[in-house]
Amino acid sequence: MKPVPKPTPETQPFWDGAAAGELRIQRCQACARHYFYPRPSCPHCGATEVEWVRASGRATLYSYVINHRPARGFEDDGPYAIAVVELEEGVRMMTNIVGVEITPENLPLDLPLRVVFEQRGDVSVPLFEPAGGAA
Amino acid sequence: MSIVIAGAAETDEVGRLPRHSTTALHLEAARNALADAGMTKDDVDGIATVGNPGPIQLAHALGITPAWLDGTAVGGSSFLFHVRHAAAAIRAGLCHTVLITHGESGRSRVGASRFGMAADSLAGQFEVPYGVMGPATMFTLTALRYMKATGLTHEQLAEVAVAQRRWAHLNPRAMYRDLITVDDVLASRLVAYPFHLLECCLVTDGGGALVVTSAERARRSPVHLLGSGEAAESPIISQMEDFTTSKAFRLSGEAAFAEAKISHDEVDHLMVYDAFAHVPIYGLEDLGFVGRGEAGAFIAEGHTSPGGRLPLNTNGGGLSYTHTGMYGMFAIQEAVRQLRGEAAAQVPDAEVSVVLGNGGMFASAATLVLANRLP
Known about the structure:
A: 135 residues; 3-stranded antiparallel sheet; B: Peroxisomal Thiolase, Chain A, domain 1; 11 strands
């Protein structure tokens, strides 16, 4: 089985969102900027007045590698893309690219993507696929 | 007060050392460095180290009663931080002579810590679920973005490994010494596209140690610390601000150059922690030796190779010499050898050397400016 993340109190809303099929990130109510990973205060201005918002789920491909030595649980996937994507809201996160054959030709940087979720045990993990559908 | 490296040595051997525990590697390196300094354990009143077994056990095992301890653990750059912190402590009168040790059974894993990140850690939640397999799948993540931004080619990335092998070819202690070509690199197996096996560092056993003290206490021709800087960026690679440049490299380099009051053309020799082939490219640019996007061509044109104007990673680096896991100690050791005129691949008349250490995956960095003379 692929690794299953274990939420902590400050990250629980992110994982609750994923379970509900929503990509949730935080936004500072003082400076109005989004941020990720989950933290109790804004890394831009330091304010503690922060809220959880639903991200659009739209992103672009910022960078990636195609891993040829599979981690535990990934043995049957063939070479897979470990990627960093930039959400429309401006924050970045690591993910896997799915829904497309994993080749450099199919994965130009800045490729438009959209979030999908994969169930792992009792946790749902956000992954991304090409926004135009399977290539 | 001039702070100096008064003793420096590695373990008798580096490479595959299954009969050495992690602690034994530390202790052998420590004894060798003290002997190199012409000192005994009783001359030491400060200790700094990272990882297993830590400064308390190290001091105890050596029979040292420290008045000052530093266990700063920020990855493979930690030893550069230790040098900087030791200099500050000595200047402040907290201690007078500091022993800095490294030992790591990176390959044989004898008495070594276990790998693995807890599922509720930051990486455990936001990186591990995506099938990362150690630094080869994380440190490398920035490269494609850098390539798109600057036009760096796959061949130029491979040239980094080719250039460093030229140095390793001259170093009998290097693990890999046979000369290689760009074609060899690109034909080696893909580890994590765009990185091939020969663009990834070795995994070895070994250790090294330093004795840092004031110039007055040094008993052999010392290497002076002219300046240093330290910085940190993101604990996980996905949150690095800009994948085309390391903030920690830039900030630590700026601080070190400012304190040393030197210009880049005064630098005779450079060590840049090279866990993967793209890291020296970032180092050359982020330290200001070349402009943005120029490092790939600079290396490919031979400027960092033997006979070039900026000899870089002259022991062969982590790619060809040795890489225990926390390579920073070996980068400092090679700079000291060059400044003493004792290197296997000696750079003629090397007087000023800059060492850039990376910790984690672009997570921390420290820079040292070392010289065999005062300005």
